[in-house]
Design goal:
Chain lengths: ~110, ~120
């Protein structure tokens, strides 16, 4: 089947904004998700957006959805070293279909 | 509320053996899904159980099986282990009912190493 696509790596400086991009496959997906995985841990649900929304803001996190291009992005404002992790986007079919993850490195 | 728990956290097995992994969902959650995470394939869906019935299944061989108990706890079993089964196995729980927001919460995973 088709893959959910994400860039593999992103490096930002502490205090800057991070933008992680994702292209999903199924235009009929009702929900799109962002998960965070720290080393040796499971996946933490960060936020999600319903497909009839264009934007969702949740504290430092902003999710943008472009349904026409099947493009999803996660913006992290004022990125901190504790935000260093792998970020996965996922679309909901009968299960969650994940991208390969974007490794975010935040440098001081 | 306690999160999703998985036992054991680490496991080392030999090729040809079988293994059983356990997952306890968040209290009140009736759906349990299992995923395999490997560096090469990423996160792949194994199966989902809801109210003791398998509701969905991914594209894995029959060596991978699961079940769910009346208290929603779930187990997955892998028989005749192969080296390629080495992975992080993640369990996720959700309320599971249709018509409500679908939020899936993951456990810390079981790291299985097959030698």
């Amino acid at each position: 089947g088709e893959d959910v696509e994400q860039s593999l790596f992103l490096s930002v400086r502490e205090g800057d904004s991070s933008v992680i991009n994702c292209t999903y496959t199924d235009s009929s997906s009702t929900y799109l998700y962002w998960y965070k995985q720290e080393p040796g841990a499971g996946l933490q649900l960060l936020t999600y957006i319903f497909s009839n929304m264009d934007m969702k803001q949740d504290q430092r996190l902003t999710v943008l959805l472009n349904k026409k291009d099947k493009h999803l992005s996660l913006r992290i404002a004022d990125t901190q070293t504790g935000d260093s992790a792998i970020y996965f986007c996922a679309e909901k079919g009968y299960a969650l279909n994940f991208g390969k993850g974007t490794s975010l490195l935040v440098t001081p | 509320k306690a999160g999703v728990t998985q036992t054991p956290r680490y496991l080392i097995k030999t090729r040809g053996q079988q293994v059983t992994l356990s997952c306890s969902p968040i209290s009140g959650h009736r759906s349990v899904s299992w995923y395999q995470q490997t560096p090469g394939q990423g996160l792949q869906f194994l199966f989902e159980y809801f109210s003791e019935t398998q509701r969905n299944k991914g594209n894995f061989p029959g060596r991978f099986s699961g079940r769910q108990f009346s208290n929603s706890r779930s187990e997955m079993n892998v028989s005749t282990l192969e080296l390629g089964d080495s992975a992080l196995y993640l369990c996720a729980s959700s309320l599971g009912m249709t018509g409500i927001i679908y939020e899936q919460y993951f456990g810390p995973g079981t790291r299985l190493t097959v030698t």
